[in-house]
Amino acid sequence: MAETQRRLARYNEKRLRPALSNDRWRADLAEEQQMKAMEAQFVEQERQAVAVRAKSAPGTPEGFMDWYEGLRDTGPGQGDALFPWLAETASRAEMRWFIEQEIGGEAGFDDLVALTQVRMGTTAKLELARNYWDEMGRGNRKAMHGPMLSALGRALGARSTVDSTVWESLALTNMMVALAANRRYAYQSIGALGIIELTAPGRAVYVTRGLERLGIPAKARHYFALHAVLDVKHSAAWNREIIHSILAEEPRAATAIAEGALLRLACGERCFRRYRKEFGLVSA
């Protein structure tokens, strides 16, 4: 699994980066076919693991939203002991390692939203556009969310590469890219991105508390402080404007959206378990 995830991570770096045309297009297509087959096998194996629970999600918009929002408390990885430990106990070196993994596992929420919104219905597309604009700092370079995480990494002296990132973190970002970049997984991407907005604030509060305890300047820790508050509003709008509107038009999408949420949570749970092992913590 580790080698597969490293290969996919390197492929995704190349895949999403703007490039110039060249005469190697046949070789590029052959590589793309091979890597997309590897990606699909990974996603389909993970889908099988969550299939039963995903199919239990109600098909009506109201019933589904109750089920979906309940994942904040009952979903995989929720309430993990890692985060209180980061808030209360982790050393600066341990926090730096954690942030390195977070950077290594960051797919770029803004880009994922942009890829996902293609051909979505008007109500969902408009909310996806509002979410994207927030991620982009509403046009203010200093308020862009992605660079905020990079700034925190610099403040801690974190250096993240594919080789220094554990495969579990790479699997998380590979999953998110796979869902957003393939239209057959478009509804799964909606569920996965939405569950980040729903569950991230609770974790962000703990990380912010830990960073503050370690004396990290407020400006540097702003990424997590912001998401502890803003994602609560994002989640409410995402659920109301995006998921509810999609299910009102296409009830069959409920299982796919549920799958996406569970896939993202399961990938996160696997990361938390790996991080606790790194820190010598007893499994929760």
| CATH fourth-tier homologous superfamily | Heme oxygenase-like
**Which range does the strand content fall in?**
under 5%
CATH class: Mainly Alpha
Structural class: mainly alpha
Largest sheet: none
Domains, number: 1
User: CATH topology, anyone?
Assistant: Heme Oxygenase, Chain A
Low-pLDDT regions:
none
Helix content: over 70%
* Shape assignment: globular
- The helix-strand sequence is HHHHHHHHHHHH
Give the number of DSSP strands. Answer: 0
How many helices in DSSP terms? 12
Describe the structure concisely for a colleague.
With 284 residues, the protein is mainly α.
Q: How does this structure look, described?
A:
The structure is a single chain. It is built from twelve helices and no strands. Helices cover 75% and strands 0% of the residues. The chain is globular, with a radius of gyration of 19 Å. It has a single domain (50-278), classed as Heme oxygenase-like (Heme Oxygenase, Chain A). Helix 4 runs parallel beside helix 10 (186-213) and helix 9 (167-181) packs antiparallel against helix 10. With 284 residues, the protein is mainly α. The two termini are 23 Å apart. The longest helix is centred in the N-terminal third of the chain and has 31 residues, at 25-55.
